């Protein structure tokens, strides 16, 4: 399974965690390590806040990262910080119940 973390730890981040769990129910693919936030060691529902965003900048192995932050300016700022780390991957997560025209590129 691919290791994934969720940047942020608020309500939107919990919803992203739920989305990943729903994907895993149909096709187990993701190992959710936890949240990335400044409040290390705390729990936000089911998953622990495992580290802060400084950790992602220096990470030395492949890791999938999704953002559970509703502020697009903050997401853009964080992406800019992480852009030098080629080990970080950013997947597109699509709920398994989505009905879409799959001839379109997402």
Structure write-up:
This protein is α/β, with parallel strands linked by helices. It has a single domain (2-89), classed as Rossmann fold, CATH 3.40.50. Helices cover 31% and strands 25% of the residues. The protein has three helices and six strands; from the N terminus they run E-H-E-E-E-H-E-H-E. It has helices spanning 11-26, 53-58, 72-82, and strands spanning 2-7, 30-36, 43-44, 47-51, 63-67, 88-89. Strands 3-4-2-1-5-6 form a six-stranded mixed beta sheet. Helix 3 (72-82) links the parallel strand 5 (63-67) and strand 6. It is globular and about 40 Å long.
CATH architecture: 3-Layer(aba) Sandwich
Low-confidence stretches: none
Number of domains: 1
Put simply, the count of helices is 3
- Please state how the strands of the largest beta sheet are arranged side by side: 3-4-2-1-5-6
Overall pLDDT confidence: 92
Largest sheet: 6 strands, mixed
Under the CATH scheme, which class?
A: Alpha Beta
- Number-wise, the strands total 6
In CATH, the topology is named: Rossmann fold
Please tell me how large the radius of gyration is: 14 Å
- What is the succession of H and E elements? EHEEEHEHE
In whole angstroms, how far apart are the ends? Answer: 23 Å
As a percent range, the share of strand residues is 25-35%
Structural class: alpha/beta
Write down the overall geometry: globular
